[in-house]
Sequence to fold (612 residues):
Amino acid sequence: MQEMKSPKKPLIYYCLIGLTLYLLLNIFFFPNVLRRTVQEVGYDTFMDMTENGEIGTVEIESNQILFTDKDNTTYYKTGIIDDPNLVERLYNSGAEFSSDIVEQVSPVAYVLISYVLPIVIFVVIGRILTKSMRKRMNDGANPMNSMMFGQRGSNAKVYVKSSDGIKFSDVAGEDEAKDLLREIVDFLHNPQAYKEMGASCPKGALLSGPPGTGKTLLAKAVAGEANVPFFSISGSEFVEMFVGMGASKVRDLFRQASEKAPCIVFIDEIDAIGKKRNGQYGGNDEREQTLNQLLTEMDGFDATKGVVILAATNQPDSLDPALLRPGRFDRRIPVDLPDLKGREEILEVHGKKIKLADNVDFSVIARMASGASGAELANIVNEAALRAVRRKSSVTTQEDLMESVETVIAGYQKKNRLLSDKEKLIVSYHEIGHALVAAKQSNSAPVQKITIIPRTSGALGYTMQVEEQEHFLMNRTEMENKIATLAGGRAAEEMIFGEITTGASNDIEQATRLARAMITRYGMSDEFDMVALETVTNQYLGGDTSLACSAETQTKIDEKVVALVKQEHQKARQILEENKDKLHELAKYLYDHETITGEEFMQILEAQEERE
Ligand code: ADP
Ligand code: MG
Ligand code: ZN
Fold:
């Protein structure tokens, strides 16, 4: 993709401005250039010339006398001397009296300066102004204009298709989104077919999904596939300090777009301007005006003209409902986190850019990176390549990739942060506690890898759990088992050391959230049945929840959450008690090796069982 540069101001303007300045400087600072040179003479010469009648014109000023000879060719000046009869004598000598000898510059220059020059200056300034106004209408950004009016145009970037542009094939997975967008591209290429059918293209499409899932990338791919101009602007660029500026930018953008139709306008992060208007006193006037302008412009559009508006957001819930009604962003394209297959495809797309060893198996990596977004996967591949370079290897291996999954997901390995022996032992038992509880509950996912090498993210140990298949539904038992697994770490500490540590804080958080969700959102408690006690307000950004129940019910919820977690904690404790030998053996192995893979773990676990 190439960004089109706005054309440079013609050189001739700078020349004209320079010339004007030069002339003005001359007139004010070097008057003699244009004026006749004046010859200074003594008073006696003046007296003699008066006596002989050789004076043509004379002017008596307060501090000097200016005069010319009979033919008005030479100019003279002399000082003032108290001379009462001077005027009379001059009159008698036949001299003419004048009041502006000095201003009698050469006639041509005089006409130039007093009549032509002002006109020239005004014409030039006028032309510059009109020119810049016209340019502002055409392409918005214009330095001259912004200087004069203190504002800018819509500063949308115009992309034109180029050979190295992003194509749909560069976006892995997201097939539904691609299909929906392909239809739009198709319309822009071939509006006639749609017109004959009497169908009109959707005016706008809203890409919504969590950060890093490729919304911006998809929009760029549309630009790369469609042979039409592509305006790209971020929602935050509309937000200005002064009320009304954002609205005028929106107007500018749409004026440009309708001139270039058919074309695509892409507004990234539209939530910056598209938030729900709250109608309260002291709302954000500027933002609301901008939004209103956007709504108006989208309505005023002729759909057959072929201007398609794409927008991206990760907070679709916070958008103003008016934006989402049919006729505006009537098409909503969900761009979700990739599933297993999608992750594998994304890894492959990015893997093409680096040199890979033969042993690389992306399906394993995709399995490990459950829940990673496209951006994170791209990062994983890049980290792996960086690691290979650090190792001075010419290819990126499967180990590099696996290591970088951990790096990206769990933070960098902290080589220099050493655990004391006692801490290492506690962490070993803690992590094995999680893994053992998970492995012993038939429905829990087996363990892929456990390490006790501290990460910069703060996690001391790290148990990587891999789900055999992608899970979309979790049943009650699975959720309960998950809580038990989370409690397993703390349970092991209690059992072995009779003492508890701060290491379980993250587990506690997660277990509580799960237990709470089971009761308030998934209807998994007997008492509340299918009543939603909490609503998710921010689906894509963290998933904050807000309670929707009375204070008494809240108390009950809290009691139930505590009871559920306690019950699962107890269960974990029991599982560990039953498998105490294995716990010791596995923890010792982890303590010695610092890492244990899933296979090693299962080997030890099963070997023991045979012996029993
Ligand atoms: P957002 O949804 O936040 O706008 P981006 O489109 O900016 O995310 O994606 C960030 C980066 O992640 C992209 O530049 C790309 O490298 C990578 N990426 C995300 N999704 C995909 C995908 N489906 N296929 C390939 N790369 C992807
Ligand atoms: Mg984006
Ligand atoms: Zn833990």
Observations:
- The first helix runs from residue 11 to 29.
- The longest strand covers residues 307-313.
